[in-house]
Structures are given as structure tokens and as C-alpha cells.
Amino acid sequence: MLFKKYIQSLRRYFSNSSPWLTGGVAALLSVGILHIGYWERLEQIGYKYLFKIREIEVLPEPKWDERIAVIAIDEASLQKYGQFPWQRIRYVQLLQALQKAPPAAIGFDIKFIESSPFDDQFAQAIATNGNVVLARAWDERGNLLEPNEKLAEAAANQGHIYQQVDSDGITRKATIWMNGPEDSQVGLGPALIQVYNLYNPNNPIALREPVKGQELQNVWINWPGEVKYLANDRQIKSPPTYSFVDVVEGRFQAKDLANKFVLVGFTATALADPLRTPYNREPPTYGVYFHAAVIDNLLNDRLLQKLTLDTEIWLLILLGPVTSWLLFYRDLKGRIALAILLPITWLAIAAIAFSFYQWWIPIAAPLGTMLLAGVGVQLWEQYEKQQLMNLFEKHVAPETANLIWQRKDEIIDEGELEAQELTATVLFMDIRGFTTISERLSPRELLSWLNQYLNAMTECIMDRGGVVDKYIGDAIMAVFGVPFPRTQAEEIKQDAMNAIAASFAMHERLKLLNEDLKAQKKPLIQFGIGIHTGPLIAGSVGCSRRLNYSVIGDTVNVAARLESMNKELTADKPYKILLTGETFDYVSDRYLGQQVTTIQLRGRQQETMIYTILGQK
């Protein structure tokens, strides 16, 4: 029964194995990878490249805020004042120098823990300026390291200098608040903002409040740009950086530092903490610019926004099935085009969101989900194709099976092979005297003998593009020209030619088979063949529990009737083939034929001419 198992497989394929299923599996796998942290490592690479993409001229690239300046304890300052640590009179001199161009706030990225002989003077200078923020930190054991009591009382504020570094060495996060059970510790950068807001209540800068229960209140840094150096010089020009010694000795203009957020920190290689950014990796820059970047982001409200974990999971759950659906019904060229277009589109969305709206949307996880969905579709289709072809190739030639797979959308409708009107050539063949033979053999011998015959004849049919529609006892019904409708006369002619070629091949194969049967002392076989070309209907026949792909119509009846007439009309002919005039018209230029009779077919006014084939021309 042709295609029975194939139809059942198609039903399972289209009802249970939809693109939503394969995409859903890909999404769940991607979510699992997200939870084990693998995507996060790839997202770190994506983070770096988003900054590189932002350097393209058509995209807006932020610059360091001009309201920020750095006073650097650099090599020139060390050369002037000696090795570190310095006596704190140096910082007194610095604060005194800054009074002529008072900054909005001054932050020291330096720890002043121990007491010193100049603390009274330093505390007085801090109090006089009134806008100085001192650093606090923690040691390796978690003990709080605060400025000594005298300096702490004089300072306008304190801010922690805790800094997080990711596994690749790049700093991406800043801890705005460290929330303990009793109090919250603000970061150095936000602490300067708090001091500014204290003196500017009518024009404050928005600052996030501490969130209870959240130990580390982190934000994502939107690095304003590269920390740039002057050509052939180690002097830093972006953001503006001034040597400690130059400021103390008055080598600056008041406008350079007036009303600015000034950070005092190390840039001397021997003292500074290395800082890697998406722009400055090798060589790195210095830790004081981490606080500068945080202040820049807060001043301009451009901290990066990142999707929550739940949102990212829902994104992946949606993206997997959608990608699978987009790929599922495309041919190879379409899939290749989408495989290129989808990642580029997502990268473009990510770049636009990053550059224009400060949204850092994931790259690795979505692209990985698309890849998994694509692989899933390909593997699923390959598996289904292999399963279907294993079944299908038992009924048709492998080439035909592949053709039907490639063009399955033309003939499959809701899991069934769609009914089609077409013109095809039907071949019936039957064993002569089968009833008598079956009485002489045991059931097991009869089945073995019959299967030898059916196997040999079926190969002749399938090798020439025919489809075995069904076996009816010892009879074979085959069709040339299904399941795809022929649109050209040449195609219909080729089907008729193939039917005759298969008939010739069956005659030659029968000679060899009878020799084997004779050697096995089994009954020899004679057959007759009837062929007719005409219109018919092909499609799924049956009910929901039992379906068969078959052809129906008068053409089938005519071919069957010719086969039954074969014994009398071809007894003295070289080939036991009867065919109608319609079929002979298609093959007469290649095969010699002879009209043997005419018959009156039901429903036809004119008699139908019947031919037999004598050989090739």
C-alpha cells in the first residue's frame, strides 16, 4: 500500500514536530547555558565590541564630560617631592592652591588611615574648602579602612573606592552603594555628587537611593571614551589631567578647575592601580579614571541599562521559536540568507540601542539561540528526512524520493497528500495461472516464490521512475507521472516511455528469474501487462485511522481491463504488453507496435484501439 507509513510520518511531522517545538528546545537549551554562565563570558566580548562599533562615525560617541578633571600624582610629582608616601603638608598645599579656582567638589582616591604630624593643618584645609571627599576602603579580611578621626570630621563626605574587575580584567560595574545591616556606604563618585547637591539644592544631580536588602548596588559603566595621551608624551589630555606638582606650584589657569569635579589620584606606574576599559586594555590606564567615569555617567544620566535576568530568559524563549519558524519553511538559499541577515539585524539593533539609548542588550545569548535554533531545524529536518526516505524509498526510486522531499509543499496539505488532477500512465501486471500455482505450493513456499517475483518486478518499475501504487495478490499496479502534475506534453510522453521501458526490463528480468526458479524446481512464471495513459485523480484515500495514497479514475480501470485481455491477444507476440492508442501515440516514434483489436469502453462513443509492442525501432 503506497505511502501508508509515509503519510503517518507526515502527520507526526506537521502536528508534533512544528518549528515551535524545535525552537522551544533551542531556547530552553540556551537558557540552561545562560544559567551556567557560559553566555556571560561571551557577553563580555560583546561588551567590548559594542564600544568599538560605537566609534563608527555615523553613531554618536560620548565624550568625557568637561566638568571632570584629574590631578595626578605622576612621575614628575614624585621626582619633585620624593617617593611616596608624602608628608601631608603636600595635600595642604594642594587644597590651598585650589582655593583660587574652587572646584565643585574634590575627591581623594587616596587612603588617609594613620595619623600624621600635619593632620591638624590638613584637616583645617579640608574644612576651609568645605567640599572635600575622602576615601574609605576594606582590607583583605573585610575590615573597614576609614580616614583617621580628625580628617573624617573635617571632610564634607566619604566614599568607598571598592572596584570590581571581571574575569577578563575589564571593569564594567561600579558599586554605587554598599548596603550593610546598619548603614550604607556610598561610592567615591556618588559622594562627590552628594556634596555638589548639598551646595546646589535648586539644581541637583539625580542620584540613586540605597536599596534595602541589596548588599552591592551595582550600575553598568558607559565608558565615555578612551583615556588619551598626547602624542610622544605621557601627559593625559582626555579627560583633562594636571600634574600634582603643577597645581601646587600654580601652573594652571583658574578656569581649568573652577566648578569642576576634581579627583586626586595616582598615575605614576609604581603607585597606580591598573585599570582596563573597553578602550584601554594594553597598556591599561589608571584607577582614578574609574571614579571619573562614574561621575561622568551620573552627570549625564548615561549609565548603561541592562535587561534583567527574567527579561533575558523571556527574550530567549521567544527568540528560539521565532527563529525556527523563520527558517523552517525556507529552502537552502533562504536559510543561508536568513543565517546571515538575522545576526546582522540583531547586531544592528544592539548597536543602535547601545549608542542612542544606553541599553546594553545581550548579543551572545540571542545569537547563540539563533544558532541553536538553526542547527535544531537542520538536524530535525535531516532526521525526519532520513526516516521518511527510509520508508519512501521502498515504494519509489531514491531520486524520486528526494524530489518529493524537496517539493513536499506542493503536494502536502494538513498532513495529507493533497488530491490532484493529473495525466499519468498506469501499468497493471498479473501472473498467469496464479490460482493453479498457489494450490501446488505450501503457504510458506508460495509467499517466498511470490516475493521473489514481486521484488524483481518492482525494481524494474522503480528504476525507471515508476511508483508502485499497490500489490493486489499477485498483481502489481504502478503509476508513472505521480505525485507531481505534468505540465508539458513532453513530460507525459516521457512517463509513457518509462512505462514501456519498465515493461521491457520486466520481460528480461523474468527470463533470469525463471532460470533461477527452474533450478529451484519451483513453478515458472508468465505474466501480462496492460498500460493506459490518461487523466486521473491522485491523493490520500481512506479515513483518519487508515490512509493510502492512490490514484483513481477511468484510466486505472482501462489499464486493468487491458491486463485481463492479455492472455488471448499476445499469445504469439514477443512481448506480453497491451496498451491503448493514447499511450501508443506517445511512444510510436521509438517502439514498433501493432494494432491487435478495438474495444468499446464504457462512457466513450468511439472505440478504443489496442496495440501491442513488437520491439524498439
Q: Round the mean pLDDT to the nearest integer and report it.
A: 86
Distance between the termini: 36 Å
Would you identify the regions where 5 or more consecutive residues have pLDDT less than 50? Answer: 1-16
* Number of beta strands: 26
How would you characterize the overall build of this protein?
Strand 6 (173-179) and strand 7 (184-186) form a beta hairpin. The strands form 7 sheets. Strands 19, 20, 21, 22, 23, 24, 25 and 26 form an 8-stranded mixed beta sheet that branches. Strands 1, 2, 3, 4, 5, 11 and 12 form a 7-stranded mixed beta sheet that branches. Strands 7-6-8 form a 3-stranded antiparallel beta sheet. It has 21 helices and 26 strands. Mean pLDDT is 86; it is low at 1-16. The longest helix has 31 residues, at 489-519. By secondary structure, it is an alpha/beta fold. It starts with a helix and ends with a strand.
Short summary of the structure?
α2 crosses α14 and α18 (443-462) packs antiparallel against α19 (489-519). Helix content is 46%, strand content 22%.
Label this structure with key terms.
single chain, 617 residues, alpha/beta, eight-stranded mixed beta sheet, seven-stranded mixed beta sheet, rod-shaped, disordered N terminus
Secondary-structure map with pairings?
Elements: H1 4-16, H2 19-35, H3 38-54, E1 68-73, H4 75-81, H5 89-98, E2 105-108, H6 119-129, E3 132-138, E4 144-145, H7 149-154, E5 157-160, E6 173-179, E7 184-186, H8 188-199, E8 216-220, E9 228-229, E10 236-238, E11 241-243, H9 244-248, H10 254-257, E12 261-266, E13 274-275, E14 285-286, H11 288-300, E15 305-306, H12 309-328, H13 332-357, E16 359-360, H14 364-392, H15 398-406, H16 408-411, E17 412-413, E18 416-417, E19 420-431, H17 434-440, H18 443-462, E20 467-472, E21 475-480, H19 489-519, E22 527-543, E23 546-552, H20 554-569, E24 577-580, H21 581-587, E25 591-599, E26 608-616
Parallel strand pairs: 1-11, 1-12, 2-3, 2-12, 3-5, 15-16, 22-24
Antiparallel strand pairs: 3-4, 6-7, 6-8, 9-10, 13-14, 17-18, 19-21, 19-22, 20-21, 22-23, 24-26, 25-26
Helix pairs in contact: 1-14, 2-12, 2-14, 5-6, 8-11, 12-13, 12-14, 13-14, 18-19, 19-21
